[in-house]
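Issue 218. Parser rejects a valid record. Input:
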Amino acid sequence: MLAALVLRTEALVTHQQLLDDVWGLEPPGTGRRVLPSYVYPLRKALDAPGAGPADSVIRGERGGYRFVPGEVRTDIRELARRSAVARGARAAGDLTAALDSCTRALDLFRGEPLAGLPGPLAEAERRRLVRQRRTLHQERAECLLLLGRYAEALDGLLAAPAAQPHDEPLAALRMRALYGSGRQAEALAVFQETRDRLRDELGVEPGEELCRVHQGVLRRDDLLLLGRTSPRATGPAAAQVPPGAAAAPAPAPTPVPPPESSPPAPAASSAPRATGPVAAQVPPGAAAAPAPAPTPVPPPESAPPASPTPPSRPRRNELPGDTACLIGRERELALLTAPAAPGSVSVAAVDGTAGVGKTALLVRAAWTLHDQYPDGCLFVDLHTHGAPHESLRPQRALHRLLRAVNGVGDELPDELHDLVTAWRAATSSLRLLLVVDDALSAEQVRPLLPAGPGSRVLVAGRQRLPGLDADRRLTVEPLDTGEAVTLLARLLGEPRAEQEPEAAQELARRCGGLPLALRIAGARLQNRPSWTLAHLVGRMSDDERRLGELRAEDRSVEAAFRMSYDLLAPELRRGFRALGQSPTAEFDGLTPAVMLGRSFQDTEDLLERLVDASLLQQPRPSRYRLHDLVRDHTRRLAAAVPEEAAADRAAVLHLYTAAGRIASDWGPEGFPTGPDVSRSPFSDWREADAWLEAAGAQLLDVVAFAAAAGQHDHACWIAESLVDPLVRQGRYHECRSALELALPGADLADDRRMPSSLRNCLAIADIYQGRFKQAHAWCTDALRLARHQGDLREQARATAGMGAAERALGRFPEAVAHLNEVIEMAARLDDDWLAGMSTCNLGALRDQQGRHEEALTYYATSLTFAEKIGRPRMISKTLCFTAEAYLALGRHTEVKDLARRAVELAQEVGDLQLRATSLSLLGAAEHGHGDLPLAITLQREALATLTEHTSRPLEMEVRRRLGRTYAAAGDPVEAERQFRLARSLEA
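Output the parser choked on:
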């Protein structure tokens, strides 16, 4: 877990990402609820003494956690910094500085990265870091070669960590280092060994770069191999000729046949080179001996057929210029440039939202591959998302392609079928690389596919193309925050970005990792040197203004999104606008279904079509997400149709109100005012609870959305209804935050019950966290407001809260008076929930006084009310209170029976605190029966269930019980440790 957070330092790691990173395809049964039990001990181990959650290096935020290092240094960030410095120095021509930075970066590695760590993220990062280490070794060797330090380069390459046995770049570097050391024959042997291995193991010939180095060694090409043209003085065969002495002509080297796939040797008429180590220096006027003609080498059997294009016509390359800054696309580039199946036409389809950098990726991939396609590299932009007159139909595209290949003009046919026939005939013997940009459909692309074996087609578009037969597909995602900051630093310069690291991080987040947005933001800052990054962040802090700031001349993020929207069918446009009223960034099909009045299945089909259009992301099956900037765009679209937007907003807020009220232990009948939720899409409380839990920390966004829209009643109703579902999961901080978001609007709400109700709800959150004085203050204020309104139900709830707080504070007479008063009011209101919980509190009060038998009488009455209501959480809570009384009486068998049933019910409803309580009681009963190992196991399981937000008194009690069991088991050291931890919590 720590590795998963540190590897994404400063970035918010969502709960789902953590589950995927650590557990992969086998997540724990409790889902995201298990995460706090890992974070809690990490904080205790890492944080300074007395540090609260706000000062922790692991910050809990809405939807996940963030590792905030502060003064903590991590080797992975230092590695990225040193590597970047090395690349910058190399680009500036400072080889000595580049060499030093590479060496210092490599010094950070000590053995295998992330050794022994499980999980998919660790495995992926391990592979990535191993590749990075290998790359650094190669870059260091390259620097040494160019500095003329050949022996050091060779030593470093031989000492490098084991690479793939067919690592051609490493073999090429070894050959160059051996050649520079005067060991030409050994360099040629390395080539032959690598070539044999590639043939035997992979069935392929060496690549172009390795063949080029091989030819350079054969021809003694110092400029190619060593980056210099002067004769080397380090080779053993270099003869020093005294001034004025005639040098003996160099013996002609024994011809070495090139590999079958290598380019032909130079023609016999080529001028003799004067730079090789055995090249003779010929005095002026002396005739040089003619170079021997090389032995002709037949072409390889596997070479593609010769092109019918006249040899005099130059090879055509229509690729656009490559961008200087392509960040964070190594995996995608590797996929696009990986070897393709020989003899076939390879097709790769790339999709992604507007502005994510699809074209830049394809162009970089094409330039990486272009030398492998001797018959040309062609580029076609179909302009699907351009102006209507720019859109390129397949006929016009084929006209252009045929002219590029054959040079023909007006004699081309007009019919698509005839053009496709002509195109296939023209390309049947060619090996081409074709890049098709901005495609909308498979129908556009299919006619353009060349026929020549070994050709490759790279297709990009916002729309996914399931109808296109592609052997590789990928969706380009926005850059993560770290990569986005790197791109900003490249655009603005490292010094400017490093002056404001936090502002750079925030600007990257506000640009949503979209390269188009980052480039526009970078351009604005370049053109306004007086602006700080923080100034631009401030201008983008308002979501409604953010898209307006991302505009520069004819480039606009919003315009790019609008083009995608305009191409949608009318029903998709309607659905897309509805998503602008979704209060959460991530949702399932139910949210838009209630807004659109469609069935769940029909809505999911609509959402899948929006996913195909790259306007909607799908982080996991049946869950959908809007990119932050796309979400801003949907809201602007929705605002243009205000009546439609208002209806959508009302529908979705009613949905959340219904879910909260149905999922609550109070039941819909426990909410006497507000909307009727009887016709909701949820069949029972379990279904509603599961739907809310899937929303996770985004529930706070729902309350904030309602409040920001001026829907004060809905904000209050939703916050009120979420109290019980959030409390039972131990999410007290979220419960409190939701109530605090809604409270300022309570006095503005039409429902006059809300001011007192929200205060009663805040008291509930405080009681669960052991903040009894604050809870009593909230209830006192709520009681005053409820009396003013004449609201008997809220008066009863406030009085019950006061009684519970007074019991915990040891004010027994006041507590008894208030709780008895509640029981009377509950009878008048016919409120079984209030009656049952107040009776239970009276029993707990008797327990505190040592009157356990009397307490059992109250608990039996409370259990009758709980079973009448039928809510498992209330039943489980009453069973735990009853078990406490039996435990005090030493009746361990009854405790075990009650606690087991309470554990099952707590597990059913997902109440972490109740589960910890019942497990601890069960452990205490096993201790009483003498099974100490089982008792320790149960108490430790109870501790693992607790979270950082769980009631401290509960954790204190569990640790005390665990300490007593360790002491009884003969482990005083661990017993003392548990007692000390309990004491520290009490302090």
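Fixed in the parser; the record now loads. The mean pLDDT is 83.
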